[in-house]
């Protein structure tokens, strides 16, 4: 296990934001289905390796498909494999075997695929080829299911419909899926009931450029708002990534954020608590919770119940670390209520969760006294160079263990 030791510091300067994991996952799946074309740039992270090795396994006729710890890879590629008629077994590691795939176990057998799993989780074995038709699914479970179906259904002989029985949460992630699919020549239409997906479509090979990642940008935008001036380069304000909403959320806190043609600047300012509906931006919650810890008054975060099923229970993980830093937090079923104050350095837990480690590395920089964070190597899941970029902004960090 690696531990990051972090001293109080002021983060400032310029940082180039890495390519989007979410966009790259979708583009890699589309390029695979197109039979060619390049996808770049791609960050050398565990999640990217998971998608690449799953694609390689499906290309080479391997029966065991290992998704490592990547929930995106698992839920995107199960219906894709089924649409291709692959007889495979999906496995994974870390907390992934604890994350449910019950919607696929309900839907796929109704459409020609035999599924074998225990307790609604992986390992999952597939037999048979997916058939077109109506796919009825709740929209408030995980948008990853919707993305997986959208990627797969165009390959089928007939037309299909995705019938949403509840409001779709994290809809921007589905919008991203539709955009990347269009870029590869495949269409699906949003309707009043969900999505209509014409069959007999063909993905078109192309070279694809992956945009920068707003989810990762959130941590450095918060760093600038808490103390200093941070310039973020490479971000696209026209992006359909939902986590671009971090800009508006931070401005509501009172953050001074300037959008220029070649960068976004986040500067230190007085912050006040707000209410946040995180149902469409769950990945930003750790960063927003850290902001709330330094803001005057109370912040209410709601609509984030699905965070309990991520790499860690992120509601519990965030609350636990904030309490360790001396901040009052009340957990709710779908979020938390944070009373801002003056966070103190503490022995923090990483919970083997990349977003927890990154968020609390930012918190530690501005806390009174030194902090340590366990599981620092969890950043390898999505952003292996995070601590290098953090140090480049003046962050005082020393990572010990796991070869770092």
**Shape from CA axes?**
globular
Compute the CA-based radius of gyration: 21 Å
The structure class reads alpha/beta
Strand % is 15-25%
Strand order of the largest sheet: 20-21-1-22
Report the sheet with the most strands, covering strand number, pairing sense and barrel closure. Answer: 4 strands, mixed
What is the overall pLDDT average?
95
Distance between the termini: 11 Å
* Quantity of strands, as a count: 22
Estimated helix fraction: 25-40%
**Oligomer status:** single chain
Walk me through this protein's architecture:
The chain has 404 residues and is α/β, with parallel strands linked by helices. It has helices at 21-34, 46-59, 71-83, 102-107, 143-152, 171-183, 214-226, 246-253, 285-294, 314-324, 354-366, 386-392; strands at residues 3-7, 13-16, 39-40, 64-66, 89-91, 114-118, 121-127, 134-137, 160-164, 189-190, 194-197, 208-209, 229-233, 256-259, 264-267, 275-277, 298-302, 328-332, 335-339, 347-348, 371-374, 396-400. Strands 20-21-1-22 form a four-stranded mixed beta sheet, covered by helices on one side. Helix 1 (21-34) packs parallel to helix 2 (46-59), helix 3 (71-83) packs parallel to helix 5 (143-152) and helix 9 runs parallel beside helix 10. The longest helix has 14 residues, at 21-34. The chain is globular and about 60 Å long. The mean pLDDT is 95.
């Amino acid at each position: 296990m690696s531990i990051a030791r972090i001293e109080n510091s002021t983060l400032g300067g310029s940082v180039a934001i890495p390519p989007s994991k979410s966009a790259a996952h979708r583009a890699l799946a589309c390029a695979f289905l197109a039979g060619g074309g390049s996808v770049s740039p791609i960050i050398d992270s565990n999640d990217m390796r998971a998608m690449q090795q799953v694609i390689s396994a499906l290309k080479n006729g391997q029966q065991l498909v290992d998704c490592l710890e990547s929930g995106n890879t698992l839920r995107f590629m199960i219906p894709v494999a089924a649409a291709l008629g692959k007889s495979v077994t999906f496995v994974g590691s870390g907390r992934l075997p604890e994350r449910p795939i019950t919607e696929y176990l309900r839907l796929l057998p109704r459409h020609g695929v035999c599924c074998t799993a225990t307790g609604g989780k992986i390992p999952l074995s597939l037999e048979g080829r997916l058939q077109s038709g109506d796919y009825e699914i709740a929209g408030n479970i995980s948008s990853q299911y919707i993305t997986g179906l959208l990627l797969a259904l165009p390959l089928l002989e007939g037309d299909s419909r995705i019938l949403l029985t509840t409001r779709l949460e994290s809809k921007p992630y589905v919008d991203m899926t539709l955009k990347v699919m269009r870029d590869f020549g495949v269409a699906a239409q949003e309707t009043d009931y969900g999505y209509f997906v014409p069959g007999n479509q063909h993905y078109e090979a192309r070279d694809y450029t992956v945009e920068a990642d707003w989810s990762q940008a959130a941590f450095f935008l918060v760093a600038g708002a808490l103390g200093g001036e941070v310039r973020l380069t490479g971000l696209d304000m026209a992006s359909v990534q939902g986590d671009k909403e971090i800009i508006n959320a931070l401005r509501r806190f009172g953050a001074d954020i300037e959008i220029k043609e070649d960068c976004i600047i986040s500067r230190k300012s007085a912050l006040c608590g707000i209410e946040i509906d995180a149902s469409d931006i769950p990945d930003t919650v750790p960063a927003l919770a850290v902001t709330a810890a330094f803001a005057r008054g109370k912040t209410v975060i709601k609509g984030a119940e699905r965070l309990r099923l991520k790499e860690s229970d992120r509601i519990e993980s965030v609350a636990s670390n904030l309490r360790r830093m001396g901040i009052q937090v009340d957990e709710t079923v779908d979020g938390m209520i944070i009373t801002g104050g003056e966070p103190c350095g503490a022995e923090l837990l990483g919970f083997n969760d990349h977003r927890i480690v990154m968020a609390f590395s930012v918190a530690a920089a501005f806390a009174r006294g030194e902090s340590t964070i366990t599981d620092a190597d969890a950043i390898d899941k999505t952003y292996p160079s995070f601590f290098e970029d953090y140090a480049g902004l003046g962050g005082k960090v020393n990572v010990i263990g796991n070869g770092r």
